[in-house]
Design brief:
Number of helices: 6
Structural class: alpha/beta
Order of helices and strands: HEHEHEHEHEH
Radius of gyration: 15 Å
Strand content: 15-25%
Number of strands: 5
Shape: globular
Length: 149
């Protein structure tokens, strides 16, 4: 029997619930990295314009079939510029699974009052040396702490 306040949805649905992280509102642009479909699909169901960052053109085509507004392949060209093209008014909510250069490209395209939800740091999991940028940025994820102004 579930405990009071617990969710009966899957682990992925709890992680991906768009209202839980970033408080995305209908009509806002919701960008997700390492876009596997679950997070973006839930955001789409709640009326967000969803953009997925992928690692291949095939994955991007699949995301567009799922109803994503756009998909950007991080392996071709300038990711920051590609995000500017598909998010001309900026990114309202960025759901980050990757960190590193992908996070940097998204941060450079945040809309005024844009929000970032840190869910993973795939770019640094198999590194032997420290990742560039803030040395302990991973603790934001581990401590589930918000970064606010």
């Amino acid at each position: 029997m579930p405990r009071a306040g617990s969710c009966s949805c899957s682990r992925h649905e709890r992680t991906a619930r768009p209202g839980r992280y970033g408080a995305a509102k209908p009509g806002e642009t919701f960008v997700v990295s390492a876009a596997s479909g679950v997070t973006g699909a839930l955001a789409k169901q709640h009326g967000r314009r969803v953009v997925g960052i992928t690692g291949s053109p095939e994955k991007g085509a699949w995301l567009r079939e799922l109803g994503f507004g756009a998909a950007v392949d991080r392996t071709t060209g300038d990711l920051g510029e590609a995000l500017r093209e598909v998010c001309p008014d900026g990114i309202d909510v960025y759901f980050d699974h990757v960190g590193g250069a992908v996070l940097d490209a998204a941060l450079g395209n945040l809309a005024l009052f844009g929000r970032v939800a840190v869910c993973g740091l795939l770019s640094v999991y198999d590194r032997d040396e420290p990742a560039p940028g803030p040395a302990r940025f991973d603790q934001i994820l581990m401590a589930a702490g918000p970064i606010e102004d």
